[in-house]
Amino acid sequence: MQLLALEQQGPFTVFAPTDAAFAALPEGTVEKLLQPENKAMLVKILTYHVIPGKVSSSQLKSGEVTTVEGSPVTVKVGTDGVMVGNAKVLQANIEATNGIIHGIDKVIMPPMPTK
């Protein structure tokens, strides 16, 4: 399972939503994702917030980057800051033992397959 990849040494870059970002999700979303039958979806969302390697804010470039989940996410670097998908980086370059964390203001969602 992809979440097992995060148990490796890394390094990883994590785009971590703030508590306010999770609170802004539609009511009941977090509780639904935490149910055992929705584990695969939770793993998909969580690993979509992670990219391989330790990438500081000064190393981020505009374009698509492949996430641990497997889908690309768009990064936009501009004079007004960094966007990852539709989320703005609020706090950059938080050092972690196995990489780096950038705090973001929204939960970013991976592309969902169409039926």
Explain this structure.
The structure is a single chain. With 115 residues, the chain is α+β, with helices and mostly antiparallel strands. The protein is 17% helix and 35% strand. It is globular and about 40 Å long. The model has no long low-confidence stretch (mean pLDDT 90).
Main sheet characteristics:
7 strands, mixed
C-alpha-based Rg, rounded = 14 Å
Strand order of the largest sheet: 2-1-7-6-5-4-3
Structural class determined from secondary elements? alpha+beta
- Strands, total number: 7
List SSEs in N-to-C order.
EHHHEEEEEE
Number of helices: 3
Secondary-structure map with pairings?
Blueprint: E1 12-17, H1 19-23, H2 29-33, H3 39-48, E2 50-52, E3 63-66, E4 72-78, E5 81-84, E6 87-96, E7 99-104
Parallel strand pairs: 1-7
Antiparallel strand pairs: 1-2, 3-4, 4-5, 5-6, 6-7
Entry keywords:
alpha+beta, 115 residues, 3 helices, 7 strands
What is the compact description of this entry?
The protein is an alpha+beta fold and 115 residues long. It contains three helices and seven strands, in the order βαααββββββ. 17% of the residues lie in helices and 35% in strands.
